Amino acid sequence: MKLFSSQKNYNLPIYDYSLIWCTLLLLGIGLVMVYSASIEVAAGMQKYQYQHYYFLVRQSAYLLIAFICGYITFLIPVYFWQRWAPYLFLIGVVLLVLVLIPSIGLKINGSRRWLPLVVANFQPTELVKLFTVMYASDYVLRKSKQMRTIVKGFLPILGVMICTGALVFVEPDLGALIVITAIAMGILFLGGLTLRVILSLGILAPMGVWGAILISPYKQARIQGFLDPWSSENVLGSGYQTTQAQMAFGNGEFFGTGVGNSVVKQFFLPEAHTDFIMAIIGEEFGLFGVTIVLGLFAFLIVRMFGIAKESIQNNRHFAALIAQGVAIWFSIQCTINIAVNLGLFPTKGLTLPLLSFGGSSILVSIIAIAIVLRIDHENRRNIRGQHYNK
After folding, report:
1. SS3 category, 116
2. pTM of whole model > 0.85?
């Protein structure tokens, strides 16, 4: 790999510092809020050794590992991901199969979603989200002349996604299934899939989700809790998390109660440091703090789409689809998580990217952002007149 340079545009920074700082701000807010949301639970339970800093230490360790992996990822040229996209996606499918094997996969709270490692548990669905972005982007380019056809363009990848979705559904992880499906459909639409097919899927997909709910009493209870969380039957049952999260937002009002002063985190709101961290932000920092977090996420996503546009202008279509896919992934997952916290969606078990506690989510999210930074870096090298030759 040789590097050639010219004498133009040397004043352009070689990195997108705005994207880096936005990511670091979200990670910093997340680290503070994970500690704040978990301090009471960690200090009051034996399984956490009564250490109030238990989750803070683990989240800090996850961040350190993620930064190292993200830096290594940034050094890898984008064409590597295109070359290996199908094989990486196959690895992700194998991991989903391993999760379902009782002697290998770890079952927690009725769901088999984790692979036990030496020092932590890993959730393969997080990795599959990234691999879906890569595989769908590569598929669109390989089938570019056939994307507007049903038989040769759409049905092959539909079969792949149905098989993958079935594995995720069996875990069960309906939230991850929705995100993975949205990523694939979004990239296929951007790659030329007809609007007629997308609209057809938009009609059939809710029917499939409803069928999945009907065969699962647990999911039916969640829907009932979502529809009427404050009823006497649901307020202490399936609607409990929703009502506690709504009370947290109400208690926070405009400027919040102050960092560390949340009430619902004191054994009232389960999973406050993971799925419901936005509710704690709403209580401790109020509408003002929630607006800042939403603004940071909005900037992150818009900037990713901007990087994708720059890649298109440089005729780097795989890179553009990757950036768009990551933006779709973050936007869908953030929307679902925040909507669940506000009581607008049934509870899903999805983390808030970059903020919630969880090694798998933090690791894969930072790797995804590192790839987008690499895409932007290569765009800037092209603008500066520096090119990579394989």
Report:
1. strand
2. yes
